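In response to the reviewer comment on reproducibility (Comment 2.3), we provide here a single inverse folding case reported in full, input and output, so that an independent group could reproduce the run without further information from us. The structure tokens appear first.
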């Protein structure tokens, strides 16, 4: 009984601080919307409400999810109330979260310009209302959010190490995305441009799975460049190989007698894309936990 009362008192005592953090996250979401509006070559409100564009909705949903993921990094390393006053901690945490928003928008531009090079992403999303392209952007946002959150989390280092591992993570994410396109038995970009939603969902969820691996490779305290770079390289290389091999095994284990690539390319089977991506993302989390 006494322990329950103590726990209740402790929870009630922390409530004002918790409310302050929630208010901070809502403020960060507000700033994220403004930044997104400024950097987007089309009017978001018009596409979301007047045009009812589902491709824009998918991309924007991924953006907001990634912003919330980014906030986790600074919040996990926030000092205790006994160490730093609340106002100072809110400023520090908010500053890191705002840096994360900038990095997220940079990551989206990088993915559009370096990974999705065979067509105009803006045209596909706005003019063609291509949900497959929106799914790729959604997956890229979530994956980048995981990378940014991991780069901002942990003790040691500083802005320079966070920026360095964010850059490494984005290069690795794009490299994996390109490798995925190579090993697929169909033209991934071509299928997405042809409005094959399954192809877009499969690529987007594969990026999320890679993002999970990269988060595990980056997260943790910064001990030294040698240690953290070696850890990054080992987990990413093993994780990328594991994901690509697992994608082949899924055909035999979960879809016996069926070729996943055929289902996605010829049948445009969205179910196959969801199952493949969900299993890969879950196995990526398992791999990171084991490593």
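Designed residues, in position order:
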């Amino acid at each position: 009984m006494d322990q329950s009362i103590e726990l209740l008192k402790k929870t009630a005592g922390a409530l004002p601080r918790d409310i302050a953090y929630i208010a901070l996250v809502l403020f960060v979401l507000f700033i994220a919307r403004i930044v997104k509006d400024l950097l987007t070559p089309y009017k978001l409100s018009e596409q979301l409400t007047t045009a009812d564009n589902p491709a824009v909705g998918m991309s924007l949903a991924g953006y907001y999810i990634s912003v919330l993921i980014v906030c986790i990094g600074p919040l996990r390393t926030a000092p205790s109330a006994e160490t730093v006053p609340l106002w100072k901690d809110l400023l520090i945490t908010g500053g890191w979260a705002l840096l994360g928003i900038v990095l997220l928008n940079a990551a989206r531009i990088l993915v559009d310009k370096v990974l999705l090079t065979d067509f105009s992403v803006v045209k596909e999303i706005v003019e063609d209302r291509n949900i497959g392209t929106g799914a790729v952007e959604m997956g890229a946002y979530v994956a980048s959010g995981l990378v940014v959150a991991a780069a901002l989390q942990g003790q040691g280092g500083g802005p320079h190490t966070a920026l360095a591992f964010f850059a490494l993570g984005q290069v690795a994410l794009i490299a994996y995305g390109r490798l995925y396109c190579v090993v697929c038995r169909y033209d991934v970009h071509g299928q997405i441009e042809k409005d094959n939603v399954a192809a877009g969902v499969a690529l987007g969820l594969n990026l999320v799975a890679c993002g999970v691996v990269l988060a595990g490779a980056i997260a943790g305290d910064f001990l030294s460049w040698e240690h953290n770079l070696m850890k990054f390289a080992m987990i990413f290389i093993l994780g990328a190989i594991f994901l690509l091999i697992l994608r082949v095994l899924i055909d035999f284990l979960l879809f016996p007698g069926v070729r996943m690539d055929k289902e996605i390319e010829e049948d445009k089977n969205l179910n196959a894309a969801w199952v493949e991506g969900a299993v890969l993302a879950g196995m990526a989390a398992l791999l990171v936990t084991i490593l």
